[in-house]
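Researcher: Following up on the earlier apo prediction. This time include the ligand. It's flavin-adenine dinucleotide, with the SMILES given after the sequence.
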Amino acid sequence: MAPKSLLYTLFSTLSVALAASIPQTDYDVIVVGGGPAGLSTLSSLGRMRRRTVMFDSGEYRNAPTREMHDVIGNDGTPPAQFRALARQQISKYNSTSVLDIKIDSITPIEDTAANTSYFRAIDANGTQYTSRKVVLGTGLVDLIPDVPGLREAWGKGIWWCPWCDGYEHRDESLGILGGLPDVVGSVLETHTLYSDIIAFTNGTYTPANEVTLAAKYPNWQKQLEAWDVRIDNRSIASIERVQNGDDHRDETGRQFDIFRVHFTDGSTVERNTFITNYPTAQRSTLPDELSLVMVDDKIDTTDYTGMRTSAPGVYAVGDCNSDGSTNVPHAMFSGKRAGVYVHVEMSREESNAAISKRDFNRRTLEKQTERMVGNEMEKLWKRVLDMHRE
Ligand SMILES: Cc1cc2nc3c(=O)[nH]c(=O)nc-3n(C[C@H](O)[C@H](O)[C@H](O)COP(=O)(O)OP(=O)(O)OC[C@H]3O[C@@H](n4cnc5c(N)ncnc54)[C@H](O)[C@@H]3O)c2cc1C
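Model: Understood. Below is the ligand-bound prediction.
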């Protein structure tokens, strides 16, 4: 190898540095949402020393419930206790921080001069934060009808998820709340827990709804008969709590609530517990503002890998995404998965930037060296070779 080439190699080996094409932001990642999904992402990124901030407006879907179930290792843990422990454990990762405030807007910024892009988030106080990536773990809200007594009992004897709350009320009298088309689905989910079941269809037992139900379950009437399920189509005026299961439990964890359903005709029926069929909606307007592709009002992540969304650099985890699962284990799984993919995506960008910086430095040094030594080295080397030959 000629001396000049040797010189170049030496210089360029010493000149590896991080490239300028990585945007200079306050954080690597902004996580919006402090439920199990956002917390899992924060944990994963913290363990890889990624500068990550998690914003939490304090509106958790399972806030009304007495305790969580079907979350192994945390069966029976109150959600607030679970989140507090997670925060405490994550706080030892110095690159993470938590801010208890709502994020009002997130804007993607294109820096064409530097050939980079990043995000700017603004919180409810108007403070701005920038990051390379965004993870939304913003959750869902349950759209509970305006029946007096219903919202107050939500998560406390009246529930939507049998895996979460059904076992604590096993063998009690069950009511099904919701429209006729949802009755069979609720029975199929719960018949191993209950034998005394009344479906309160609240005026929705109509010919049109019978057709809808028959399209899904052609033999729906026979199925309900087989499980001894009665249908009560009277209009519900209110639901009154008669006994609170918080104060009436047994040593196996059973909760004994009592509710009285008041109908508009003045009659009443008592039940211990209810499963419901009510819709949900996105808690946050951020998915809409970021123009994310949605599937049935969930952020589409199924068409992309690693909880990515339709917007480059934006990920969605937990209830708000289109995975089709809304429970704490799924929130933790998807949060963790996004944590891995975000880290690796950023590492790839850093790797590519380091390579292009190195190439850029090498080319610059070659030109500088050329200018400094001209072709004197080549002449010197030729003279040495000539002398050697003589
Ligand atoms: C009554 C009830 C009981 C349940 N019980 C169980 C159970 O026993 N077991 C189980 O597995 N599942 C249970 N679930 C389901 C469980 O609650 C959800 O699956 C889980 O909470 C989803 O977690 P997440 O992190 O996606 O959303 P969430 O826990 O709802 O968290 C959403 C987060 O986003 C934040 N946020 C939203 N918008 C913004 C914003 N703009 N800026 C800042 N922060 C924002 C909120 O403040 C919150 O921190 C229950 C649900 C309900 C309704």
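Model: The longest strand covers residues 103-111.
Researcher: Noted. I'll compare it with the apo version next.
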